[in-house]
Amino acid sequence: MWGVTPTIPLMIWRRHLLIFALFLSPIAGLCQDDLGKFTSRPAPEEGPTKVVIRVIMLDLDDISGANQTYTANVAYMARWQDDRLRHDSPGNKATSLSQIWHPRIQILNRQRLQETFPEQASVSPSGEVEVLQRVWGQFSQPLVLHDFPFDHQTLNFDLVAAGHEPGSLELIADPEHPSQIADTFSVSDWAVSEWGSKPVMHSLVSGDNPVPLFRMFLTMKRNSGYHLINFILPLVMIICMSWIVFWIPPSNTGPRVSVSVTSMLTLVAYRFAVGASLPKIAYLTRMDWFILGSSFLIFFALVQVVVTSWMADNDNLATARRVNKWMRCISPVALVLIFWLSLF
User: Fold this and answer.
1) Which DSSP string corresponds to 135-193?
2) What's the pLDDT score for residue 343?
3) Lowest mean pLDDT among 23-37, 77-91, 160-174, 223-237
4) Cβ atoms of 238 and 267 closer than 8 Å
5) Which of 23-27, 130-134, 145-149, 214-218 has the lowest mean pLDDT?
6) What whole-number distance in Å separates Cα of residue 133 and Cα of residue 80?
7) Rounded to the nearest 5°, which phi and psi values hold at 261?
8) In CA terms, which of 74, 164, 308, 337 is 20 to 30 Å from 320?
């Protein structure tokens, strides 16, 4: 039974299937050739492919010194010419980026992003290809916070075209529609002092060949009024509270110690309250130096209370009073020096 010869109709069907496969194989090869033609760089004999870039900073939500990041809403556009994609349709055609050559634009300092538009390109009848994308999320940015809260920071948004032959691609700024930023940003404690965009050559790894990069930068100035009112002014008031002991007679040990200890406890509560709002970094900022100097002033007032009270108990009341008078003058001068040296 297993050795029965196939029937004649089955043999004819197999023969037709073989003929159809032989007919289809040249067409498949032709399609592969066309796909390969469109995924290669356009007109390599004419020099580097020029890709026009435009970036729009739509919004800036947050700048985090602790995380060394900023959160922004950015739109960018890349445009280049590919004569192989000319068509006779009256309008632009949408095509997947996987079907054509494209500069493989990547955001160099991206972290967690959400993309709005699909990975598609719009091709005009003349063969001009345009890719538009809008992203929202976090971007890494090393921040130098030594001058906090009176610092300036430069935020970079970097578009890089990697994975190409050296000198085969060039990123240029859009001459007709230059990059721009929104009139206002959501971030409230910063102001834009300067911004711009430019194409540069950048090495992703030290010693490696530089690749084309388009950079938009914003120089941001921190609005220090919030920190002056909410951080610095309350601390100055705590320091002034600790100076009350200089006007209380040295013989009144109980009230003087009570005021000094209350000042120290208030300082501890203050440190806990503002600690979450200060950048958590390995070095000291101007604000850290001011808090540290102010803490020494309050602690020194407590030490002075102990010393002058001991003098009063050992028949040196006149000396203790003179120390109180001197401290009324020395302490404000010390505060001014700490304020000037740390914050300015």
Assistant:
1) EEEEEE-----TTTTS-EEEEEEEEEE-SS-TTSEEEEE-SSS--EE-SS-S-SSEEEE
2) 83
3) 23-37
4) yes
5) 23-27
6) 15
7) -65, -40
8) 337
Beta pairing, strands 128-140 & 152-161: unpaired
Residues linked to residue 133 through DSSP beta bridges, in sequence order: 76
pTM: 0.76
C-alpha span between 188 and 93 (Å, rounded): 42
DSSP state of 227: H
Q: How many of the other CB atoms lie within 10 Å of CB of 74?
A: 23
Concatenating the DSSP letter of every residue in 205-218 gives: STTSPPEEEEEEEE
User: 145, 102, 142: which is closest to 122 by C-alpha?
Assistant: 102
Radius of gyration in angstroms for the set of CA atoms belonging to the chain, rounded to a whole number: 35
Contacts of 126 (CB under 8 A, 6+ apart): 86
